Structures are given as structure tokens and as C-alpha cells.
């Protein structure tokens, strides 16, 4: 695989993760978790990133913090969605 093909595959994976995160934002809003939904939305669509690595690292940190929070309890479906996204982020590292 050429360097260009690797970069293209990485860009496609980032797009897939971004789409999954957008779906998660919608679910979080429905499940009455507006704070995390708003933070994710901001990071996805408003914040400026210098590269994909920085973007994914920050989103991964945000999701891991949300998962470990004792204050929030997410549905099993939402927790599984978060786990799936984190696995996708980790696979790019």
C-alpha cells in the first residue's frame, strides 16, 4: 500500500468516526445528556484542529472521561456506541 493509499484510508476512517460521533450526539440529546452532546458537537463542528490525530485524541479523551464519570449513567446502547467509537479511534493510533 502506498503512502497516499494509507492517508486516504485514514481520512475515510476519520469520516466514519465523525459520522458515528454525529449519531452519538443525536442519541445523547434524546437520552437527556445535553452537556456531553453539546461538548461533542462543539468539538466536531466548531473547534479548529491542526490534524486528525489531535482531533481524535481530544474526542477520545472526552468520551473516556464521560464513560468513567460516576455522575452519568448511559443506556447500554449508548455505552456500546461509545465503546465502538473508542475502538475505532484507538485503531488509528
Report on the structure:
With 93 residues, the protein is an all-alpha fold. It contains four helices and no strands. Helix 1 (3-30) packs antiparallel against helix 2. It is elongated, with a radius of gyration of 14 Å. The mean pLDDT is 89.
Give the helix level as a range of percent: over 70%
Which band does the percent of strand residues land in? Answer: under 5%
Radius of gyration: 14 Å
Query: How would you characterize the largest beta sheet?
Result: none
Order of helical and strand elements: HHHH
Principal-axes shape call: elongated
List low-pLDDT spans.
none
Average pLDDT across residues? 89
- Report how far apart the termini are: 18 Å
Based on DSSP secondary structure assignment, what is the total number of beta strands?
Answer: 0
The computed structural class is: mainly alpha
How many H/I helical runs? 4
Summarize the topology.
Elements: H1 3-30, H2 34-45, H3 52-68, H4 76-92
Helix pairs in contact: 1-2, 1-4, 2-3, 3-4
Please supply descriptive tags for the structure shown above.
93 residues, 0% strand, elongated, single chain
Gist of the model:
By secondary structure, the chain is an all-alpha fold. It is built from four helices and no strands. α1 runs antiparallel to α4, α2 runs antiparallel to α3 and α3 (52-68) runs antiparallel to α4 (76-92).
Amino acid at each position: 500500500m502506498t503512502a497516499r493509499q494509507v492517508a486516504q484510508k485514514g481520512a475515510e476512517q476519520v469520516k466514519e468516526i465523525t459520522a458515528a460521533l454525529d449519531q452519538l450526539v443525536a442519541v445523547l440529546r434524546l437520552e437527556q445528556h445535553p452537556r456531553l452532546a453539546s461538548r461533542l458537537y462543539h468539538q466536531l463542528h466548531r473547534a479548529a484542529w491542526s490534524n486528525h490525530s489531535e482531533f481524535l485524541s481530544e474526542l477520545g479523551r472526552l468520551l473516556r472521561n464521560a464513560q468513567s464519570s460516576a455522575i452519568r449513567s448511559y443506556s447500554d446502547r449508548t455505552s456500546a456506541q461509545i465503546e465502538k467509537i473508542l475502538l475505532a479511534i484507538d485503531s488509528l493510533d
